[in-house]
Design a protein that fits this description.
This protein has 758 residues and is mainly α. It contains 44 helices and two strands. The C terminus is likely disordered. It comes from Aegilops tauschii subsp. strangulata (Goatgrass).
């Protein structure tokens, strides 16, 4: 039929399939504005070609790489001046302009890193603007992660806040990355308390990752956050356990942010969960990097790699003692771990004790180790034998003396600050028993400091603390070696700030004289101190023991607390010579005989000293207290006299030094430093910040020379640096009066809001 219709010239009948439907028209026929091609399947060959094209487009010019490398080498020369280095940095940044991202992703990132380290803030801002959208990606790159660390270290407050906000939702993923975790940890250490809290909260629950407003909490405690937002404690614990377990599996345990998360978990966890977490932590803390690489099968290493292996083979416990979070974590594992955990921790420290003892936080860990571990033979082998070989270095060191003082007088508030005592008393709430083993209140208060002492370390030690101290000091022969060292260096120990405390404890025999009668060599030490004090006064520069600030107070304490030493000193140095030492610091030594609680010591000196008191040569302690009180009342008049005479002259002299360039305060367009405060943590100031610093220091109650120097600096800023950004037309005196009036108003408001009786 179809052939007949075609032959007759009639139209073709519609097919059954297309009946009632419009035939398909191409987009162009419908007026769609062009045809859309169907997506073609991408082959592996196409992907490889695209990747090669991308890498070719990112490749840097070889000549540019060579030039940048040469500039970087010149920057790092040890004899390169600051001005020349600034010029080299400016030239390198000019060559890299527009190519910051390509350079950051290449091995040449070290050049940009050096430039960011040494350039000014105005030169660092364009680098931050160019790389800010890509900082998260660069944080996971092995070349550019160090660059990101330097960028956030040198960022302004606004730029750093922008980087912290960009981390929202990515903290957990970066924490699990072996390279990205270093960037998150660097940001955590530089962040303020609210910013730290926002970073940590993302690791506590998935809700904090999804909703940014939830991380902006004013509370600083996880328990407060849970109760305030109505979260389920069990779900938070489960999520935190998952995060910590992943971190432990990857071996990323050396960072402060990880320590903080684990400590927060231990605070809210029950007893079983907390103990289980501590038992998992101990193997990681006691194992070095070398052991991990051995398990991985990396046996054949280059010479350079072997050197790195050797340096990093120390236990992780040593490396985490640089921060207070690491110290808390180590103390928790030592206090609440099992006996075999403590044994494992002690053994891993073999050969590493001196590193800990000379460290500010590490010495506290050694103190806890000496106070808790019951196996005194192991402690003697690991700790005491090492300390005996380095006694002189430890005695004169600010931190090294603490383990020695702990053995003689445990946790004395005279030698340890409140912060250090707080760290030593840190415990996991669910693991602290109601009975505090080994805690005994001191019946005798510290007379000169006015504070009571308490054994703060809570432990489950079964051995008696006094017996442990005697075994560690006497049985190990540490006490004998200490006495000999003190005899050899008695003059130097008496006159130094740190050595005098060790000398006092050795001479007295420790707390409550528990070492009295242990050895006869103690009398030799008493004679050595008395002979040093018996030397006549000379003008050759050597200060007499009774005239020195430190030694006079140390000898006075020995007279009050050790009758045997008091008798030896009287017979050797003071009998018949008290009139020579009746004034100045030496009068404190002589007067101590009348204040001694021992009647025999009083009887030794009473007849001779009473004649000096009756003649008005020696003043008793009661009269001295009254004179000091009257001197305090007249201090305001004396300070006003100084401000009119000496202060004005000293300020003029300091201003001349600043104007002539002998003292430098300006190092850039808006970069200033205070030449009179070189030991402050914050060295660089902007103009407005330095003006505020100068006003506060000039109006403070510090010594008159400090106030005079800062007033001279204020005049220098007002007259010689008017072109600095942020300098106002308001005179500095008017600004000072305005600032001080604000402080007074705030103090008055604080006093008015206080409750009566407080």
């Amino acid at each position: 039929k179809k052939r007949k219709r075609v032959a007759a010239g009639r139209p073709e009948a519609p097919s059954k399939r297309a009946k009632g439907k419009k035939p398909y028209e191409a987009p162009a026929a419908r007026g769609g504005g062009g045809s859309k091609e169907e997506p073609q399947p991408v082959t592996a060959m196409d992907e490889r070609v695209a990747a090669e094209e991308m890498s070719e487009s990112r490749k840097l010019d070889n000549n540019l790489v060579k030039e940048l490398t040469m500039l970087c080498v010149k920057m790092k020369y040890h004899n390169t001046t600051t001005i020349r280095r600034c010029r080299l940095v400016t030239e390198a940044l000019r060559k890299m302009d527009g190519k910051y991202l390509e350079i950051a992703r290449s091995p040449t990132a070290c050049v940009l890193q050096s430039c960011v380290k040494w350039c000014s803030q105005s030169e660092r801002d364009p680098v931050f603007v160019a790389l800010q959208p890509h900082l998260l990606d660069l944080s996971c790159d092995k070349y550019s992660c160090f660059l990101v660390n330097y960028i956030i270290k040198g960022a302004s407050k606004e730029q750093f806040a922008l980087f912290i906000s960009s981390l929202h939702g990515h903290v957990a993923s970066l924490l699990f990355h072996t390279i990205g975790v270093s960037v998150v940890n660097c940001a955590f250490r530089l962040a303020t308390l609210p910013q730290k809290r926002s970073l940590l909260l993302e690791l506590y629950s998935t809700e904090f990752q999804l909703f940014k407003d939830l991380t902006e909490q004013k509370s600083c405690s996880l328990l407060e956050t849970i109760s305030k937002l109505g979260l389920q404690k069990s779900s938070v614990l489960q999520h935190m356990a998952t995060v910590i377990q992943t971190v432990l599996e990857k071996g990323i345990v050396e960072y402060s942010i990880v320590h903080m998360v684990i400590l927060e978990y231990l605070i809210i966890a029950d007893k079983t969960s907390a103990l289980d977490m501590i038992h998992q932590l101990v193997p990681h803390l006691t194992r070095g990097t070398y052991a991990v690489h051995e398990l991985s099968g990396l046996n054949r290493l280059s010479t350079k790699s072997k050197e790195k292996e050797k340096r990093s083979s120390e236990p992780l416990l040593i490396r985490i003692m640089q921060t207070k979070e690491g110290l808390k974590l180590g103390l928790v594992c030592l206090k609440h771990g099992r006996e075999k955990d403590r044994k494992r921790i002690s053994k891993c420290l073999k050969g590493q004790i001196m590193k800990l003892a000379l460290n500010g936080y590490g010495c506290l860990f050694v103190i806890c180790l000496l106070s808790i571990v019951d196996n005194t033979e192991l402690v003697t082998e690991v700790v005491i034998d090492v300390l005996k070989k380095q006694l002189k270095e430890l005695i004169f060191d600010k931190n090294g003396r603490h383990p020695l003082l702990q053995l003689f007088h445990p946790l004395c508030s005279r030698y340890l600050t409140l912060g250090e005592l707080f760290y030593l008393n840190y415990n996991v709430p669910s693991l602290v028993s109601k009975v505090n083993f080994g805690s005994k209140l001191d019946d005798v208060a510290d007379k000169e400091h006015g504070g009571s002492e308490d054994t703060l370390v809570a432990s489950d030690s079964k051995e008696d603390p006094i017996k442990r101290q005697q075994e560690l000091l006497v049985k190990s022969e540490l006490y004998e070696v200490l006495i000999e060292t003190c005899i050899e260096n008695v003059g130097q120990l008496l006159r130094t700030n740190f050595g005098k405390d060790v000398l006092y404890e050795v001479a007295v025999g420790g707390k409550n004289s528990f070492l009295e009668g242990v050895t006869d060599r103690i009398h030799v030490l008493h004679n050595a101190i008395a002979c040093d004090a018996a030397r006549p006064r000379t003008d050759d520069g050597d200060e007499h023991a009774f005239d020195n600030y430190h030694s006079s107070r140390t000898i006075r304490r020995m007279i009050l607390d050790c009758p045997a030493f008091a008798a030896t000193l009287w017979k050797t140095a003071l009998e018949g010579k008290c009139k020579l030492y009746a004034d100045g610091f030496s009068s404190m030594v002589v007067g101590a005989y009348l204040e001694s609680p021992d009647s025999m010591v009083k009887d030794l000196a009473k007849s001779e000293l009473q004649l000096l008191i009756d003649g008005g040569i020696l003043k008793p302690q009661e009269h001295k207290a009254e004179e000091e009180k009257s001197a305090m009342e007249c201090s305001s008049d004396e300070s006003s006299e100084l401000s009119d005479t000496d202060t004005g002259y000293h300020a003029k002299k300091a201003y001349k030094d600043l104007k002539s360039g002998k003292l430098v305060a300006r190092f850039g367009t808006d970069r200033f430093r205070c030449p009179f405060c070189p030991e402050k943590k914050k060295l660089d100031y902007r103009y407005r910040e330095l003006v505020q610093h100068v006003i506060v220091m000039g109006a403070s109650k510090r010594p008159w020379k400090v106030r005079a120097n800062h007033r001279a600096l204020a005049k220098h800023l007002e007259t010689d640096h008017t072109d600095a950004p942020g300098s106002s037309s308001m005179p500095l005196r008017q600004a000072e009066a305005l600032y001080l009036s604000k402080i007074k108003r705030s103090q008055a408001g604080a006093r008015s809001t206080c409750k009566p009786g407080r």
